[in-house]
Queue: 3 jobs
Job 1
Amino acid sequence: MKLYNNPDKSSWLELLQRPTKSVEVIEATVDEIFKEVKEDGDKAIKKYTIKFDGVALETNLVSKAEIEQASKLVNEDLKEAIQLAKSNIEKFHSAQKTDKVFVETMAGVECWQEKRPIQKVGLYIPGGTAPLFSTVLMLVVPAQIAGCKEIVLCSPPNKEGKIANEILYAANLCGVTKIIKVGGIQAIAGLTFGTETIPQVYKIFGPGNQFVTVAKQLATKYGVAIDMPAGPSELLVMADESANAAYVASDLLSQAEHGSDSQVILVTTSQDFADSVSSEVKKQLAVLPREAMAEKAIANSKSIVVDSNATALELINAYGPEHFIVATTDNDFFVDKISNAGSVFIGNYTPESAGDYASGTNHTLPTNGFSKAYSGVNLDSFQKSMTFQKLSKEGILNLGNAIELMAEAEGLQAHKNAVTLRLSDLKK
Amino acid sequence: MKLYNNPDKSSWLELLQRPTKSVEVIEATVDEIFKEVKEDGDKAIKKYTIKFDGVALETNLVSKAEIEQASKLVNEDLKEAIQLAKSNIEKFHSAQKTDKVFVETMAGVECWQEKRPIQKVGLYIPGGTAPLFSTVLMLVVPAQIAGCKEIVLCSPPNKEGKIANEILYAANLCGVTKIIKVGGIQAIAGLTFGTETIPQVYKIFGPGNQFVTVAKQLATKYGVAIDMPAGPSELLVMADESANAAYVASDLLSQAEHGSDSQVILVTTSQDFADSVSSEVKKQLAVLPREAMAEKAIANSKSIVVDSNATALELINAYGPEHFIVATTDNDFFVDKISNAGSVFIGNYTPESAGDYASGTNHTLPTNGFSKAYSGVNLDSFQKSMTFQKLSKEGILNLGNAIELMAEAEGLQAHKNAVTLRLSDLKK
């Protein structure tokens, strides 16, 4: 870890900068595949599945038999763990339900706000060596609670044409409507336009590599909403001497193992503590199976010593971390005053992995400083808020004149007239 | 209005299609101005203000003296109307505040969700002949209630270097932090990168022409959030013979006067009613000052006769109108079952203009079918939801094993290790 001792505020911007990647090269590829999928539907999907996943599928719809077989192959302990996580995620996201907000703003002017489910959602689950079944729980559970009618899950097939057993088990457990073996750009294009087998959806969720990220961005141009823009995963730990250096090191490493572009930052008020964490990191790193990857990320990581909690807070808010662990003698100070963070982990016994898997909070969170403006995925991500209003005769009589004046001042005569007509009838 | 009598379902997609505009030509211009503003700051802003607004400003910051003078020039009746609208908007958006959502998902595992304000927001108010001060209310009021710290309003100067009195009055009344005379692409670029006088913000709100729309889209590429993608304004009225044809015509016309690309649709179960509305439209159109514009929009508008309320509902949900007026004998049916609409206006005495100005609901709403996935602007638009979790020793003991199993199955050994370390200490 690179150590920065009381860096001058003028250097913060550079110090906290995330690596930026140029995606312009990718954009042309994504554009081309989108056009082809729009034009040729499943034919194009098949072509790119052969090209990128190296497998020719007869059908890319996962059958009931496949799901049943997959479920049998997941071991019972893991099933119980998944069920426990699901139950916690359900409890936390169910609690996020809100009632209708009803206000009679003036006599006879009733206004209300209601949340209604997004009818069709597409969830993307990456493939690769490690099956990210935890993301299935994080996306399907709130989609179900929200009441989304069509929940389509796409995940790339492996060379044998299969999706990992754990993903199929979790998807089925949570009630996915349709599971489709399709990955990468072609999956996002399929969900955007719809094909013979892939339903067109209104919003696309889920993580992915930079191809998927650029494809999701392009999908928004075609009117499909996405959960949030994505970037490499991040963790910032704020800790002082009251924290446990070994725990902090283990948390930093758990972030670092996500990939060599992971962002890992320690902020502390104690130089000694920074040193202890640094040597703990070396010790633990040596025994990790993903050592090479984690080592690279740790090499890019930063240990920043600051003079006070106030300075630390300012720096953390300037960074806006995706994951923020706080283990200090004054956690309340940080919890109360943090403005920009995706999810906050408090105290010595709350590792980031708790939220990644099973505490109940969602692990789909804003990276890249997006926590300054974006929420992590939550129940509202699967709903939209709609407003309603109903004016009685009394209501329009109370409000009408103000509307007429404002419409006239904005030069919108027909807006005024819609009120005037009603008022003159009522005043007859 | 073009009449469609019981159109076959297979024709709906075409029938309900919005006109699509190619923005590719604009994109290059927007790109160029963004690059220049990023590079040259205020110098570039000044250059483009001269070019597009035809005025060279000494400073583009609106002074206190200017605000005071402008306020004196707004007439008292209009001020009262604006204050009434503000009060209703405040009541409705204040009621949208939510409490912390707290759940102990398992013994010792505390999770909660809180909403915190987006610290810096930029609001764009178009210039032009009609000063859209109502949009000032719709954006500043919820920003204030949310607790946004910096509320920057940008609006283009006229040839005399001024912003409309009503806009300055409303902005000051609602507590805008900073008002800047800058419009179009250069305003959005300034808010995206920050300049010597324009603060960089985290989220940009507000309507605008196609240049502003494309600029907002580009801003998202630089990590700035936006309220929603934009398109021409729309109204769909569902009415039967219980409705008042003159009122319905006045509502359709109030939408049509927004511009020749406005979308105006009547759905009805009665051919006779469709005919009455059509002749009422002709009658009212003749006396409108914006007749030419409204006439064009009305020429593109559609009157669709369907066989039942059920068919009507299906068609309306397929369209997903921005504004949806329902005036039938069974309004509850539509209110209960509408899935996709921005804002709903119920009954004979609730013209769209009520919500446009003063009922209390927000008038910044999803167009172009985006109501299928997007909310209109509401209090949440100015906040982000953050999650928190705190595990006690008991908590990690209860949850730890499930996390270990799941992390291991996902091949994330360091995630597991962060738990194992803590568990072994506790089990010592």
Note: Chain A has three domains: 2-16+232-347, 24-226, 392-427.
Job 2
Amino acid sequence: MKIGVLGSGKVGQTIAGKLAAIGQQVMIGTRDPQKLTEWQQKAGENAWIGSFKEAAAFGEIVFNATSGSGSIEALQLAGSEQLEKKILIDLSNPLDFSQGMPPILFVSNTDSLGEQIQRTFPDVKVVKGLNTLPAPLMVNPTQLADGDHNLFICGNDNDAKNEVKERLQQWFGWKSGAILDMGDIKAARGTEAILPFSMSLWGVLGTPVYNLKVVHQSLSK
Amino acid sequence: MKIGVLGSGKVGQTIAGKLAAIGQQVMIGTRDPQKLTEWQQKAGENAWIGSFKEAAAFGEIVFNATSGSGSIEALQLAGSEQLEKKILIDLSNPLDFSQGMPPILFVSNTDSLGEQIQRTFPDVKVVKGLNTLPAPLMVNPTQLADGDHNLFICGNDNDAKNEVKERLQQWFGWKSGAILDMGDIKAARGTEAILPFSMSLWGVLGTPVYNLKVVHQSLSK
């Protein structure tokens, strides 16, 4: 499959590197191709580098791995024509680090970055997900507790969410039951708002390798 | 021990009922004593009912189990003199249900209700905690996954947090390792902000008996 990954930071490199490693065709869209020389050597023959627009056109599915503060602009550069009718897996978070750690949110409570992206690109199938996780866990969940922790997705298109669920299992090894569908894109308010909390846990736990698990009563009880 | 519980809703009744059942002396502070007739009969001889002021004066430790929108006012009625130098276990959440479910937050991101309470009552040792949980789990964590899920506390006074940790183990059966100290009262921004997300999980899971667990890599690895 051909996949576009917008954003050349740690998250974008991790996602795209994993996809290339498992034999998918992947193009990272970036403003800064020089940054990716080392990444591309490692990622090998399945990995390309292009502009945001080229990567969006290339991908049958596109990941938004740009930093939240630049996501709308990056997607505008990618172009609604290139993204139209495609699934956009939105990993972005509306984080503002200008006041130190933990970050604050530049949109929250009564709106979310996921909703803003969906409103700006109404013909794109935005599926918010993976945004609550440290990058290495996104693509290798079984490194922690044999994958027994959760990933939250949301979006307005059920078929798109189901496809994303399948792809995350197939590409990265997520277990089906570990992926919780929180509802429509409005649920991004909730999954984005846990970031300041969850990022604080790094300092509390003393390890960057952690995630949330929802523990619940068995429904048969 | 003598304990004051401010608030006669489900949370207040659950906390105070459990404390009376294990032989603590407890007084619920309420504006509406009639509401508690049935509760008091069940709670028995260790249970009293009073005003906010009487309950605050009665307690060596005080729980704030009032609804978030009325917490500051209820605490003002309780009176700073009655609360002075005491530990206040703050269970409140700044939830606004006026726009439906999930609720929005009437204070968030760059401030929190926990911080507002601490600022309003600087001589009270505010320890935020239990606010992320459904009431039955607060006082009976082992009913779910043998207690293997987390409770988050924060506050400015380390001795107060340590005492609260011990009390929650002793009174309600929380395991020591299950109680995560998130830092000073500013961390209430994080633990209050997860409520809209965590309340949405009820509908997703189809059960009200659930909680979050932080799964992390063993530090010895």
Note: Chain B is about 40% helix and 20% strand.
Job 3
Amino acid sequence: MEISGDLLIGKHTVRGTNGSIKGIDAATGEALAPAFGGATLEQLEQACALAWQASDIYRELPLETRAKFLETIAQNILDIGDVLIERCVTESGLPRGRIEGERGRTVGQLRMFAAVVREGDFLGVRIDPAQPQRQPLPRVDLRLRYVPLGPVAVFGASNFPLAFSVAGGDTASALAAGCPVIAKAHSAHPGTSALVGRAVQKAVADCGLPEGTFSLLFDSGRDIGQGLVSDRRIKAVGFTGSRGGGTALMKLAAARREPIPVYAEMSSINPVLLFPHALKNRGAAIGKAFAGSLALGAGQFCTNPGLVLAIDGPELDTFIEATAAALSETPAATMLTPGIHKAYESAVNKTAEHGEVKTLARGCAAKGATQGQAALFSTTAEAFRANPELHEEIFGAASLIVRCPDLATVLDLVEQLEGQLTAALHIDEADYADARRFLPALERRTGRILVNGFGTGVEVGHAMVHGGPFPSTADGRSTSVGSLAIDRFLRPVSYQDMPEGLLPDALKTANPLGLNRRLDGKLQLSK
Amino acid sequence: MEISGDLLIGKHTVRGTNGSIKGIDAATGEALAPAFGGATLEQLEQACALAWQASDIYRELPLETRAKFLETIAQNILDIGDVLIERCVTESGLPRGRIEGERGRTVGQLRMFAAVVREGDFLGVRIDPAQPQRQPLPRVDLRLRYVPLGPVAVFGASNFPLAFSVAGGDTASALAAGCPVIAKAHSAHPGTSALVGRAVQKAVADCGLPEGTFSLLFDSGRDIGQGLVSDRRIKAVGFTGSRGGGTALMKLAAARREPIPVYAEMSSINPVLLFPHALKNRGAAIGKAFAGSLALGAGQFCTNPGLVLAIDGPELDTFIEATAAALSETPAATMLTPGIHKAYESAVNKTAEHGEVKTLARGCAAKGATQGQAALFSTTAEAFRANPELHEEIFGAASLIVRCPDLATVLDLVEQLEGQLTAALHIDEADYADARRFLPALERRTGRILVNGFGTGVEVGHAMVHGGPFPSTADGRSTSVGSLAIDRFLRPVSYQDMPEGLLPDALKTANPLGLNRRLDGKLQLSK
């Protein structure tokens, strides 16, 4: 498959005429061919109009059609073959194995949502049958199902060029919910976006869906992204990126005539809490594993462990020594873009020069212009409490260890933290009683609490929450990974006294779709 | 039970010292004793501090304790006896039968949520067991439950002084979810609020709950309401009221350091669509029923039918004649407050004087200073399309009939409407094919679609949606009536590889709470 540099507007490939962008070889900084034409506002309008036209049709197609569509996207992505892997490796600077794994994850995610669509539990069917004899007033017949919100704008993430980009988790869950998608390609991987976009576009055609079910736009500035979020036909936004970018979209969405939900996954430092017995018994081993999690993918994960809270003392020193030893052998790694590398260097230097911070270790020196060198810092509890800038995410392989006098201080610092995607507890059985006292504080401010592990490696399953209170996400009531992500793009509608002939199939008394339903409040399985 | 005029801050009754408000006899406009002291910012701070202290404790109490608490509130409200009914009738101007019915609804709602809490489906338990042998990587153990958001601010509605006020649907669903509540009393019924507040406060004590589980504040201005929404310890807002009030709270909540969800139920004109065969066969009967719905409770319902769309002609005239005849015999009714009456009169006069509007009928003349006189208007499709001010809600018994040339125009006008709580279709079997074409447009912009009925009379059940896209509510993904309302105050948290001893009971493998659970994505009933 060739990369044309065109926009995908419904079934058409159209040259964008509003400036252009080029992919960059992450390792060398060289521009890659071809140039991608940025969309004009007229082209944005066309995409929105097509999405709107498609919306009412797409959402009422049989669930089987929708499921097959998701599976077809998955197969079409696989069918691109090595061209996709190579382009993605070049644009992202990520290792081939990682990108192959991410393709598997992307395809698996689409197939999982196909299964979710077939099963139909997301329709949330509830039926309260009429009670004509009820006194003092008869009870009406009420039936509820969830319907899709309408067209969704998806902003791809730089750090997951496949799994959280054009056909990633946001797109998969929105399409599964029955929402057309307009994807705004991330400028860090336009070629990857173009290839995947073509795979989705082809799946739309393969499955005979309305063309507006999917469009892909390139944006040479910010007008198209902003215009998308502000367009009256867009009913929700999926975004993964920086806090600045996400909060800007939140403001735009809130200022609309009709405000819409924004699901922005933004900023998290993912505290790691080392409890005394675990630290004493396994400090070196935890340190080694920590260094691995910290440096994975050049630290460019939303769930990267950017903060360690532990009681100061020789046990913590053992942990630090093991971490430092592992980091000192950790090669510098090419970062996703020159801009991300520059921001990382700047934040690391600023932290290193902070009067209250000590540099404990660095990874191997960079061998390329855009390679990030891991960094480990420490500070005191008082300094951490007094300097909110030390709570900010550094996107990359940098982490800050806070030396605390006791567990009460650790808990107190946890209570100072903003919302987080994850928190990790390292505990042995003798630590359980202490750990239990931390759970309320962690539940209040994180989406996922993990034990004796690290937040990197986000399982795509049914019980995953990749979300959390602001600012880790824009809407802490949701997850952007796992099957529950479909709920973000749905809302309930109730039908009162509607004749069988007009009811959607999901709500018909005979249950032709074989759905699990809640009858008079009681959950009933179809089989 | 005596009405003291004090704030309820946790277990204390405290005199508010920030100005005062008095209840008003809705029928006479006379001020009622006693005066209610407005809360100071210090008193607000105390209530928030207590709510925060209570939050972690209250949310982890056994479900049975929480259910009993809700039932105790219900019983305590009944135990107030006639004093409550009388005060509520006086303050609201609503008939005794209505208020008795509303008390029944309030009590029933609390008991329904008690049953929902006992059943535990709202915990949304999902378990993906570990797969240590999985290749290429072992799968971790993931378990998900929903946790309460934290303390909730509830703003009572003027038009449901019991069912949507201090212990109404927002409070009941928030408490059911595990969230402490700080209620801001509506100044239209401070005495009713005080009596019900005492019943809740007593239930907190009866059940041995932390005192901060509930507080009740009076506000002599707007500082306390605004301060509540802005307080860092408040994690969600429930509101029923005007569009202006609701959008102001939305802005405050969005501007916080940590933005929080606002569930504001605001503004809806609830279109009624009359289809040709129904109109021809039953026009007069529909008209009579319509007049009844329009004038019910002086038209002071969120679901009041403020707009009728139908094809012009003799059949529509028959409907109008029947409506006009019924309205002309409809007594004027005391409105909730002098302010609401004044706003109603002003909006009705403005509409009557509109160059494109004809007045078709009025109800009986007012016999009291604050009585609202029903009003029926008509206009043309072109005028309705061209004059957005005709789309605005008039809170009270006023409705606008739009004479359309054909059904295509009716559908086109539906597409011009903002988000609505309800839409009503009046159809006979011969209309079904036409009606089907309207469903997508209605599903996109309403929370409830009803057939051959009117939106007034909102059943408190499991399949009810009392919600809808903006501006009918602030968040179209939710309902404020029915058991699904509990979902508004919850968010998911995932636990990874957590030892059994630390897992909350809801997630323990042995399922000690007997919950329905989703295992590896498959729903499994506990019994």
Note: Chain A touches chain B through 79 residues (CB under 8 Å).
